[in-house]
Amino acid sequence: MAEYLLAHDLGTSANKAVLYGLDGRLHGSIVSAYPTVYPQDRWVEQRADDWWKAVCQSTYLLLEQTGVDASDIAAVSFSGQMMGCLLVDRDGNPLRNMIIWADTRSNLQEKRMIEAVGMDVGYQITGHRLSASYSAAKLLWVRDNEPEIYRHTYKMLHAKDYIIFRMTGEFASEYSDASSTNLFDIQKKRWSNELIKDFGIRPSILPDLYPSTYVIGTVTATAAQATGLCEGTPVVMGGGDGSCACVGAGVVEVGSAYNILGSSSWISFASNEPYFDDEMRTFNFVHLDSNLYTPTGTMQAAGYSYSWYRDMLCNEERRIADKENKSVYQLIDAGVSRSKPGAGGMLYLPYLLGERSPRWNHKARGAFIGMTISTTKDDFARAILEGVGYNLKVILDIFDLREPIKNMLLIGGGAKGEVWQQILADIWQKPLMIPEYLEEATSIGAAVCAGVGIGAYSSFSATKDFNRVVKTVYPNPENFALYQRMYRAFNEAYYGIENTYELLW
Predict the structure, then answer these.
(1) Are 161 and 109 in contact (CB under 8 A)?
(2) Cβ atoms 199, 191 nearer than 8 A
(3) Is the pLDDT of residue 55 over 80?
(4) pTM for the complete prediction?
């Protein structure tokens, strides 16, 4: 009897292949990197064939590493980067590089989309602001600037959709990825005929849609030879990385919430319906459980801010870490602990990459405010961690207006730092639950999706066997008043210099 679930997580920098037992136990993982190309300023692309090579390589290596026979794999499923635009012909051949989520070249197309339907209408239909960040604007850019490629396009796919095609020969997508396109009616769970017509998009270019748990097909003979999998292995759709992370974190019941603290960061919760913010500061995806939604707010430079500090200001710490075979973040965190809460009265605005939610200001820039002659290097480090916490609290406050979130699951690479855990708990004044696996949430979500799809699990609650909570971090009430004051100052600082960004742009 097949006893294992294979999950592929197609991230921005690499594919991570992970093997789980049906009992939720992690048996092994392999990471295969692929490059990102930057043809021009604000252009960010990847080659689809690089993803396929990474999937094939990581599958072979994972089976070899674990000693698991391919015949024992019950199903394979996927998590993948969202908001991209890959155009393929009738045979599934990529017609150009994929324009990935980080690409912002299509600002003109964004403007035309807003002019065509209005931002309010777009938000109510899709659950998102109309933005150059999403697939629709990228598709329109190709139509306007590369008409021959658009003319020969048979389907627009996301990263995982392309791999599913290579595995099964089927062109398809599912609700969670579709909800990141600016073309999906989030309440009716279908492509929006209104938006497709108003944007001037050929309807047939969009793939058929299915629930995330749908078994789209089986591994073909060709794919079996390329990957080492058995022909006939069931392939389950899976979902976008945000929705997969939600399940992997254990957010599978209405009201539960999580924060993922990676290079970027977001807060999301499970809901029976989309949450439409009056100011359109947050947005919505479809959950892997197609009966649920995941209202979300995301910031651009969370872990990016910390890594910027590491690379720009921590040469000595990096030298010591290399010499002593330690993580450089251990040394930096020790410095953060030497700085008192409030970072000596200094604020950090974490807008190194502009900002999406909650500010939606692509011209915003990072800033340190409040330095004095007594400000230390350690204060800078603490200010960065606190600044990310304040910015995420803006999102959290929006969701708390709907229904207060009582506690939060914390995942992602940044969640490894105990100092950062405590800072976030103190700023938010909420308990933070820390699960066993912090960086495997997306693959866990894909694996559980595979299990539900083939009937191995009756519901997504099975994720609790995959990623158990091992620790709870409680807020320190002594820091509440201080962080309330600093949070007010943080918001005042942003609005106080907002006009400056226009002059610097």
Answers:
(1) no
(2) no
(3) yes
(4) 0.93
| 470 phi and psi angles, rounded to 5 deg | -115, -5
CATH numeric code, 4-237: 3.30.420.40
Cβ neighbourhood burial of 426 (10 Å; 0-12, 13-18, 19+): buried
Contact 263, 364 (CB under 8 A): no
Per-residue HEC secondary structure of 109-162 comes to HHHHHHHHHCHHHHHHHHCCCCCCCCHHHHHHHHHHHCHHHHHHCCEEECHHHH
Domains 4-237 and 303-403+494-504 alike in fold: yes
Cα–Cα distance, 406 to 421 (Å, whole number): 16
Residue 361 structure tokens: 């200001």
Give the whole-angstrom CA distance, residue 401 versus residue 380.
32
Residue pLDDT, tens place only, 114-128: 999 999 999 999 999
Residue whose entry in the numeric block shows the structure tokens 């392939």 = 235
Q: DSSP class of residue 418?
A: H
Q: Are 353 and 302 in contact (CB under 8 A)?
A: no
- The three-state DSSP-derived secondary structure of 314-327 is CHHHHHHHHHHCCC
Q: What is the pLDDT of residues 392-403, one digit of tens each?
A: 999 999 999 988
Residue 268 and residue 108 in contact, taking contact as beta carbons nearer than 8 Å: no
Alpha-carbon gap, residue 362 to 351, rounded angstroms: 9
Residue spans of the domains in the chain: they are: 4-237, 303-403+494-504
- Distance CA(201)–CA(91), nearest Å, equals 21
Which helix or strand (DSSP H or E) is residue 382 part of?
helix 377-402
Provide CATH code, domain 303-403+494-504: 3.30.420.40
Q: CA dist 135 to 85, 131, 202, 244, 387, Å?
A: 5, 9, 14, 19, 30
